[in-house]
Amino acid sequence: MRHPQQDILEASPEALARWLESQGEPAYRLSQLLKCLYMEHLASFSSMTTLPLALRARLGEAFSFLSPREVARLVSDDRKSAKFAFELEDGEEIESVWMRDGDHATFCISSQAGCVLKCGFCATGGAGFSRNLALKEMLGQVRALARAKGWPANIVFMGMGEPLLNLDAVLPALEALTDPQRFALGSRRITVSTAGVTPGIRELAGSVARPNLALSLNSPFDGQRSQLMPINKRYPLSGVLEACADYAERTGRRILLEYVLLGGVNTSAETARAVAQIACGLHAMVNLIEFNPVPDCGFHPPVRKEVSQFRAALENEGVKVSQRFRRGRDISAACGQLRGKHRHAARVAVHCPSPPAQDREQVQEHE
Question: Is 170 helix (H, G, I), strand (E, B) or coil?
Answer without folding.
Answer: helix
